[in-house]
Amino acid sequence: MSTGFSVNMTYIRRAFQRRRKEPSMAVHNNTWRDYALIFLPYVWMLIFFLLPFLIIFKISLSVTEIAIPPYSPLVTFEEGAMQIILHLENYTSIFTDPDGTYIRSYLKSLQVAAFSTVFCLLIGYPIAWALATSKPAVRNVLFMLVIMPSWTSLVVRIYAWMTIMKKDGLINDVLMALGIIDSPIQMLQTDFAVYVGIVYCYLPYMVLPLFSALMKVDYSLIEAAYDLGCRPVKTFFSTLVPQTKNGIIAGSMLVFIPALGEYVIPELLGGKSSILIGRILWQEFFNNRDWPLASAVAITMLVILIIPIMIFYKIERREQEKLYAGK
Amino acid sequence: MRVNKPAAARLVIIILTLVFLYLPIGTLIVYSFNESKMVTVWTEASLKWYGALVHDKAIIDAVGISLLIAVLTSCTAVVIGTLAAFVLVRVRSFKGESAFVLFMTAPMVLPEVITGLALLLLFVTLGNVIPFFSDRGVIAIWIAHVTFCSAYTTVVIRSRFRELDISIEEAAMDLGAGPIKVFFAIILPAIMPAEVAAFLLSFTMSMDDLVITSFIAGPDSTTLPMLIFSSVRRGLSPEINALATIIVAIVSVCTFFAWLSMTRKQKRMAADRAKAARAMLIEEKAVIEHRRLYKSKA
């Protein structure tokens, strides 16, 4: 009897241990020292990252007032009784605006972000492939050259494109000298310029995850597919794409999510037609000083972004676990 | 012929990429040495705009503020990133772990306008209770920058932490070293390259940030990107070309050193691997020899 009982206890203990993730990796048992280490990063992020979002949500439920701060309080005390007034006007006005400005700019942002992601993927994949399959010495140099522009200032890079896309800029001059066009084409203040700017600035975010995925690819599979008579396109989709799936998704999310709220690039390169949601938020906040509406715009944007962020988070998590498992 | 196809394709891709990436920057640099005030019309070579830059007090002030914030931010973000990386790799399962991971990764992907607005509203709200926060100067910008830079420093340092051999730490502990001693004598030297990389990364991001800073900054604290942005919005100016050229020059020098250390590290690793392989070969030979002798004896 007694042995049976102890066996059962071991089973129970094992079952509990298994519930903890990978018990072999849990090197320390949690001590006060661990909690002391967690304390600073955790509290910092709670105060300066989580709390702000609660405040944004709170302010989005108030209305604008000419006061300091310029919004109505949610909780008031009148005649000794606490009153909570929640205004949903900001959210309804986003959706029922007579001109449809907000809805249109959301759709426009989604369109620009989606197309930019596709362009980045189409341009970034060959670049990542070229990097991953070069000789190690060449690869290092190229890798640095691809990343270096992203270490210089974003505004400077956009400014550089403004100079060459101007009416009398380099691109128009070259095209005219070659006789391809007769008169300069308007490139600045168009959606085209916005796409060029976004692709130029976000390309490294796409190339890096693709590059690390392509470095791990088993290239003998491609040769095998060729030997078995597979056509190049089919080979690509049946060997490379499945093996680099996580890199493709991670890169796409890294471009799509920030591109959706991009402000600087459409502001400097885009015209009146590229009113993206980031610009709307900026205008409501800085020009109209309507803080509650700007908060409501931000919350709506967050709701749209929750799905892509969760996908990105899940992929990251999976990659991390793979790394641990590999160790 | 088939074999050369990928190589040719690779060359074309690489050339096109480099043209796309460096044509705008190259043009910018060339026109910074132009005498004319018109940014796109070449007259003659001159260093006049660099001279103008040195005497522009607004730019010098903005550079000062940006550098100060960038140094403060990088130091803090590296400390927070090291703590967070240690916790994520070594402690692993603790209460609220997945929330912690979310906090540490979310600032990397969220659109800057949202983060900027959120942080500003936080400072305004906290400012009502604690007056210290309502002064939206260097300290407020520093807090905002640390918040998004810590996410990046954590990722960089964490990946190095994972490569560490825990048995060395355990050996030190067994020999009587305390946790603090172990950290400074063993862990810190081993993760130093990642600490430097994380420092440089948060330094460049702090120097470059425009959107979040614009939300936070009060009227007295204009950083360099804010100044460039407002001047670019007014129109093209050769002075900005000169400033951009200096930024590109500094970044290129840093990139060169980064490349140098990367190649050195790889060479060292390759040499270590060769050594290990040689050692294994010798051992194998010894084993074979031993077996042969043993057999001949028997």
Describe the 3D structure.
The complex is a heterodimer of chains A (327) and B (298). With 327 residues, chain A is mostly helical. Chain A has helices at residues 2-19, 32-60, 89-96, 101-132, 136-151, 154-165, 170-177, 191-215, 220-227, 232-243, 245-260, 264-269, 277-287, 291-326; strands at 75-78, 81-84. Chain A is built from 14 helices and 2 strands; from the N terminus they run H-H-E-E-H-H-H-H-H-H-H-H-H-H-H-H. In chain A, strands 1-2 form a two-stranded antiparallel ribbon. By secondary structure, chain B is mostly helical. Chain B has a domain at 57-236: MetI-like fold (Orthogonal Bundle). In chain B, helix 4 (97-109) crosses helix 6. Chain B is flat. The chains are: A mainly alpha (327), B mainly alpha (298). At the A-B interface, helix 2, helix 4, helix 5, helix 6 and helix 11 of A face helix 1, helix 3, helix 4, helix 5 and helix 6 of B.
Strand content of chain A: under 5%
Biggest pleated-sheet summary of chain B: none
- Strand line-up across the major sheet of chain A: 1-2
Would you tell me the overall average pLDDT of chain B?
Answer: 87
CATH class of the largest domain in chain A: Mainly Alpha
Q: Please state the oligomeric state of the protein chains shown.
A: heterodimer
Please, what is the CATH homologous superfamily of the largest domain in chain A? MetI-like
